[in-house]
């Protein structure tokens, strides 16, 4: 999705470095029922589709698109699977 979006080319990102980053992010997701890496992939794909098929494709600058893709990838990092009310927040 990072390649297809053109973000790798736009920023001159190394595919090897991007792969290492994604692998590191993956290592911080836990094998829990919902907030796991599979969920992250679904969210990332939804963000990618919105960026590629809506007016966001022409309105948003590349920096914002990259920020949204990274935010989608990292949004539940280290989530323990419990709600805020469980933690008393």
Automatic annotation (TrEMBL):
Short name of one Pfam family: PDEase_I
InterPro entries found in the cross-reference section: HD/PDEase_dom, PDEase, PDEase_catalytic_dom, PDEase_catalytic_dom_sf, PDEase_CS
Sequence positions that bind Zn(2+) 2: 76
Residues the record marks as active site: 35 (proton donor)
Annotated keywords: Hydrolase, Metal-binding
Keyword Metal-binding attributed: yes
MF term (GO), any: metal ion binding
Gene3D superfamilies according to UniProt: 3'5'-cyclic nucleotide phosphodiesterase, catalytic domain (1.10.1300.10)
Residue intervals of the PDEase domain: 1-89
GO biological process: signal transduction
Domain of life: Eukaryota
Residues engaged in binding Zn(2+) 1: 39, 75-76
Protein name: Phosphodiesterase
Native source species: Haematococcus lacustris
